[in-house]
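MODEL INPUT / OUTPUT PAIR
PAIR INDEX: 1
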Amino acid sequence: MFKVNTEAKRYKLSKYYETLLGLVAITAVNLIFYRHDPGFLSVSPHPYWIVILLTSTRYGFAGGLFSGIMAGLFLIVFKSLSIPDIELVDFKTLSMWGKPILFFIVGVVLGETRQLHLKEYSDVCEERDAYHDAFDKVKTKYDILSEAKQELDSKILSQESTLGTLYEAAQGLRTLSIDSIYPAVLDILREFMDVEECSIYLLDGTEFRLDTALRHGKSYLPEVVPWGESLMSIAAAQKRAVSIRDIASNESMPSGIIISAPILADNHQHVVGVLNVEKMPFLKFTSDSVRVAGLVADWCGSSVENATVFAETKDKLIADEITDAYTFDYFLRRLREEFVRARRYELDLSLIMLEFPGLSNASDEGRDEVLMAFSMILKNQVREIDILFISDEPGAFYLILPTTPTAGARVVVNNLLSSFKALSVMAFETDQNLVELRAGVAGYTLGMEDPAELVKNVKEDMVSVLFAE
């Protein structure tokens, strides 16, 4: 700050120094090289104009005023010295004051003109500086908003990625296989919460037994944990997710587990097991992570309950374990549902009847061989939405083909017959009674009022095919 003030002060005084220096320099040249004309009185235009013009145009009014006065004084001094026996009346003549007054007037006029330009220039500079300041402020705000936008975008992308990861991982819980649910739950914790180590213990009486675990390295997990000796017991007793923070004042703080959430079934009335988190990043260990663990445990409990109900229902409906064929009672109910759907939405629907006449008198071993071959062929030839049922007639099966026209059903029958023929020639050469297969096809047509018509039509279409050679 002091240096800036010094520079400004030096600039203000420089017009005086430069004026005096210029006049002295011209006078020195005059006295050295042009002694016969002191003061350049006979030279026109006078050399002092150089100092006046330069100073007034550079420094404005003050510079023009000072240079005009000083040039006039220098000129008056030399004129006074050039007149011998000068008298007072000589100072009253126009020749004495004419050119000095002209120096003064020109210096003032040029200086004032320049001063106006300098003022305009100063105003423009101030306006420019104001715009610069405003621009700097706007740029600062813009930079701040840009950083905020980047952070917000990154958070949005992170949330979208997290939600996408959670959704994709949660698809594993839609399975109806209990064995697939528990690993899917651990995958959700790993992907969504960056959990490094987690496990699932199932409650067996008064103890917890390890079922599934996700580990890094060779960390040890006990196979059995008695009730009352870990964070799992607290979570199971309170039926809510808990963490080590919830029992920080407890003298018997459990080691190893940092979050434990109960897996509940029967409308959150019965504890099936617990979901544990043993290791995760410190910054991720928040109250939100505890809530997420509880939410995932609830999903797990609902999925386990659905899978259990499905397994129990399937056990009641499936009458043949080899072919996974459903019961005849379920066939009648399901056929009516598909029939109503086809009639309402004008969809195709076909029914296939397959009969093995020789199965009724076959040995258990022969029957199992035929059904195993039949089951293997079905898995390769039919779709997942096609459903197999046992008929009320011995050795017969029904196959419902939703959204399939009669022509397509006949193609399926031909493929089944061809595959069964190729397999039976090799497998059942010693028992010719087992290689006979009867097949019939019927399809829904407009005007049908009862699914029993389909069953009647398919029986009438039955054709016997003997594969013996």
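PAIR INDEX: 2
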Amino acid sequence: MAERLPMWKKWMYALGQLGWSLVSFAIGNALVYFYMPPETVNFPQFIQRGIVFAGLTIVGLALGVSRFFDAVTDPIVATLSDRSKLKLGRRRGFLAISVLPFAIFSFLPFLPPSANNFALNTAWLFATVIIFYWFMTMYVTPFFAWMSELGHDPNERLLLSTLISITWAIGYVIGTQVYLFQTLLEKAGFEPVRAFQLVVIVYGIIGFVLMLLPIIFIDEKRYCESHTVNEGGLEAIITAFKEKNFLIFVFQDLLYWVGLTGISLGLVYYVTVLLGLPKEQASQVQLIMFLLSFIFYVPVNFLAKKFGKKKLLMIGFIIFAIDFVFVSMLGKYNVSPIIQSYIVAILSAIPLAIFGILPNAMVADIAEAHGRETGNYKAAVFFGARTFMQKMGQTVAGLIFPSLFILGKNEVNEMGLRISAIVSLSFMILGYILLIFYNEKKILKTLGFAFEEK
């Protein structure tokens, strides 16, 4: 029987999450900023800006195409990991193979090879971002699947999910300070673009070291039960999507990620364009947002055990919807712009804690329940399918939101930004409606757990 993971090794696992959170921040959240900077940011033009095809921008197409590739490869990597016989283990081995290129390609998209050859830089952008997402999938999908196997019951999986939510948020918060660090380096004499590039490179190096920790310290064969998969790769994916509760879960998750990614891509513009504040305020807003969310991590854990994860997710959708209504009217309230930016941070804190902790624990429970019912323990397939839908949501957002930001013009403008917030709001409402049909009681009954109804 597999041993339980000691608490300090749980933290080693969680620090791997901090590493990939930091490494993936810039491409996921600042690529549009780098290639389509606000007017107040003096970056050279590396690619053609504005609409280029069917209402889409080059950077939007790069995000969309790479995210689609990323989503498609998730189930492929998942099935390969589930069926792997690597010496280090079917999860740990994949992490070891992918960790270095994952870190290197996190900053290469921000180092375009030419100062004025837009075609070459466009090709470089597409190639490096696509390769980045391949190695990210090779690390992240087995990493999440590992949680299902390192956690031996729903409460332990909830604990692991909480720890990686904490470290993810820390990594994200550090990532959001890229604009502040850029400004500090500018004051030290660096050109704006060089300052930004240096910060992203440092993120890649620090993230690489942190991502090594679970590989070094966690012996997969010692702490995980040895399970087999008796299905072919395609069959395993199909049967996962035939699980009704899983299907409902991943579609509400898709809707959530479309809305959240749109707001994340737009935050620096909401702050600088709608509120007229300096770009550094966007870093402060995100920092406050995530620091406040930490306050709610313990209550979310307690309430999830008592009332179930589904109810808390529904509350999260409601609060985010209120938040996005507020964002759509930023700059119109009879309150100082600084206060308005802080209200956005406060409203976001609770749902960020809820959505940061619970979805991974829910997928782990679904995967374990399926394994007990069928004898096929394929956690990577479930996490791969979940991240496939998540990334499809991010793909949709990457395609449509840059175009919404510049709606009717060739530059980011007020009307486009307000409409983008309303679009995000609509996705949150749809996610709430879909989650109503999720049957959490059935899953917990299979696992032998229950929560109090109030």
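PAIR 2 NOTE: The mean pLDDT is 87.
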